[in-house]
Amino acid sequence: xxxxxxxxxxxxxxxxxxxxxxxxxxxxxxxxxxxxxxxxxxxxxxxxxxxxxxxxxxxxxxxxxxxxxxxxxxxxxxxxxxxxxxxxxxxxxxxxxxxxxxxxxxxxxxxxxxxxxxxxxxxxxxxxxxxxxx
Length: 134
Prior knowledge:
By secondary structure, this protein is an alpha+beta fold. The protein has two helices and five strands; from the N terminus they run E-H-E-E-E-E-H.
């Protein structure tokens, strides 16, 4: 896949469960961190006092455990682009490209006062278009 935003994840001892695997709840944290880092690369505001993104849904498909120690990466891409939302596809892979998890997050921009959807900020739309798979 072209058009990816890719970030390494530094595993911590506290990420592990009793079986020396990364706890499944940590996967969401890894994906969230990569998503925020991607948003932070946008040259225009992606969150303001008036609007902000919320996660409407998150899907994770666990493929195989991440055993400590490991070099892993989160890869993000745009799976679908809407008026007020973006479906951000994600994968967690190891250094050799082995897939540990895939899925997607639907982020919806809302008006903070009303809680209603609002159009994507222009910078978010452009950044999402740059990562659009298709």
